[in-house]
Every structure is written in C-alpha cells, then in structure tokens.
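2 proteins. here.
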Amino acid sequence: MFFISGRIALIRRYINLFLFLIKWPVAFAMLLVVPAALQAFYHYYEIRNQLIWHNLIYFSIGLAFFAAVRTFFILRHGVAETMEHEMTHILFALATLHPVSRMDVHDSGGGSMTFSGDGNWLIAIAPYFFPLTAFTMMFFTIAINQIIGYTPNWVFVALGVAVCYNLFAFAEQFHPRQTDFKAAGYLFTLCFVPGANCLTFGTIVAFVERGYSGIFFFYRLILYYARQDFNVLLEYI
C-alpha cells in the first residue's frame, strides 16, 4: 500500500510539474481562442441556412425558460450552485491524482473542499470554465440517443436549462474576491477563463446543433482562425 501511494504521489508531482510548465502557453493559446471563437460564430451566422435549427430552437426554449425563472423567481444562488462548484474542484483534483478528504457546503452559500498534495492551477480554476451540470446533461443526451436511437425534443430543452443554469452560476461566482483566482493567479485567470469558456460552451452548442460532427466542425474553425491570427501576430513581431 505504501509503495502504491508513493507511486501515486510521484505521478501527481509530475502532473503538477507538467501543468506548471504549460500554464502560460495555455494562457496564450486561450487569448488566441477568443478572437478565433468570435470569427467562428460569425461563420455560423454566414451559414445559418445550413444549420439544424430544430435542435437549436428547442435548446433555446430551455435557455429562455430557465433565464426567466432565474431572473424573476430566484434572486440569488443557493446550495446547489455551491455544491456543483466544489464538486468540480473535486473532479479535477481526482483527475490530477489529489485525494479529496473533505467537502463542506454551507446554507449561507459558501463552501470548501480539502485535498492532499500541492494542488495546481487546473484544480483552482476548474469551476469557472467547466460547466459540470451542462456536460453531465450532454453525456445524458448521448446515452438517451444510444438507447432509443434518437434525441427527443425535451432533452434539448433540458440541455438548454442546464447550460443557462451554469451561465448564471458562472456570472455570480466570477468576482475579484474569489480566493481561487488568487491561487491560479489573477493575470492567468483573465487570460485563460474567457477563451476556455468559449471552448466549453461552444462545444455544447455545436453538439446540440449537429452532434459529434458539429463538435469537430467547431474545433476545425477555431483552429483555422487561431492559426490565421497567430500568423498575423508573427508578422508584427
């Protein structure tokens, strides 16, 4: 047992070292993603007649429904948002081999989690770019499609609700007093989070529109425009 725990600790240190080394290259890449995503969204506008609007309309119904409910009936976030926030920390802690020993969620809205190891920027910043509820619903959508052979309209509505829920949660949790931002670094957070959110939420919307092929198309656009912008940047250096 001691041998295994020692091996895990060693691998964890290598993971943390790797994340440390790629931290600022990743931040730079996310800076390129933002204008690339804006160009990709405009490309979608140009080919709007080719999009599968049936899926997007039901998805939009879910977005609008939750936005209306959240705006007019629930004025502040509660325990559910805090629990999801801490669970996202836990997910990325476990993914980088940091054993989690405790999670606390308070009725007042605060929460915390405790893990072993030094930690890394990915654990600290995960809840601000990874919409756990929306991705869980996306995987549920995939499962439903595999089981019954198609995706019912109500599933797209539910996915829209999940995405809107995460958008509201992100908006409330993103403020300068977040200790997670201090752990990851304020400058890094500003560089990383906008681009990362373009990718995560763009992935979900692309999936809604056309499934797996929609995701591949979305990332091809991002890569194409990011390369173009990078080449233009090199001309000015």
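next one coming up
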Amino acid sequence: MLTKRIIPCLDVKGGRTVKGINFINLRDAGDPVELAAAYAQQGADELVFLDISASEEERKTMHKWVRDVARQINIPYTVGGGINSVADVAALLEAGADKVSINTAAVERPALIEELANAFGSQCIVVAIDARKIHNTWTVHTHGGKRTTDKKLFTWAKEVQERGAGEILFTSMDHDGTQQGFAIDALQKLNMLLHIPVIASGGAGSPGHFLDVFVLGRADAALAASVFHFGTIKIPELKHFLHQKNIPVRL
C-alpha cells in the first residue's frame, strides 16, 4: 500500500511565509528557506510553496528562493504562482523544483495542462483547485481565492485529470485556516471521480483531522500550514499517531 504523505504548505508573499484564515488576514510565519529546512529534518514527505500574490500581481514566481530551498532540502517540493507557460515551468524545474502547481492559468486556458504534461510528464504537474460552497455548490476560485469563476469543483477536477494533470491539490476555502477539519464530503466525491492522487488542504487542526482525511476522505496526502508553522502539531508526533492508527506513513 502506498504511504500517505504529510505536506507542509508555505504560502509565500514578499519573500516571507504567511498564513491567514479563509484566504485573508495574513500574518507572518517566518522565512521560507529556514522553514523548508526544518520541515525536511522533521520528516515531512514533501513541501508545497505557493507564491500567493504572483497571479494577482501578474508576475513570475521568485526564482531566488526556489534555488535557495533546493540547496537546503532533500525531499520533493512543488512550486506554484504566476506559472502560465512551458518556459515558466522549465525555469522552475531548473532552479530545483520537482513539481509545479498551476491554478489561475489552468482555469483561464485549460490547454496549458496538456502542454505542460506533454513537455514534462504528468508526474510534474499539479493542478491546484481552490473552491468554496456558493448556494450549496462547490465553486472554483482563482487569483488567490479573490475571483469567483463559473467552474464547478467536480466537473473541473474531472477535466483536469483528462487533460493530463498528475495530481490535484484541493483546498476548501471554507475550511482554510479554521482548524476545524477537512472538507471530508467533497474529498470523498473527488476520490470516487478520479484515479489520480488528491492532496487535501484546508482545515487541519488536530491529529484526528489527519486520521479522518485519510480514512474517511480517502486522500492520498494531507497538506497543512498553520498547525505546522506555529507548532500546534509536530510532524514526528503526527506520524507516530497515524502509524499507531494503522495509517501507512513514512517514519
């Protein structure tokens, strides 16, 4: 059985790691390179870095910190933010990233997913989907959650898979930063619809929430930020807890 992955997420803005609640009220959480090194030491399976203002500010992800992170860690890491071309991905992979995450650009031009999968392989391409419930329907948002689209979560996730994405990173904007648990119902439906891995994001607040997301939500990986950045949950302790509950994890 494949091991379940624990993935700290570092939202980067202005060269610093930040974290908010429901995508707003951001506060500083530290230097991304220092945090990356610490998480790699603690036993994180992968890292995700999202340059959260790149699309909104219409600029590219900062390559300097991507290179600096690559020098500090020996685990896979994904970088997202402002990526909209084959050249952008080539530059990030050359700087040291293992995978890239696209969101806004994929919604605006879905053919980009195929272009990137054909150029670099599906295993390099993660499509991030930020969604919240509007009138009881999971609706996709872009530009760091600031713009509502006409796309719906489940149909968009299916299209993303068909176009060649290797993984989906689903963030429930309603659960983001609340530490009240993941969006289990949505994850269950995604798992039934898809055959590619789903990374669950938004709502982690306790070890029990991670257990629920793997057992009930059937996620392949769980991503979190606040609980790791501010020390609420320690990765080694979390993994031992999951191991004791018979969840396959890398110790």
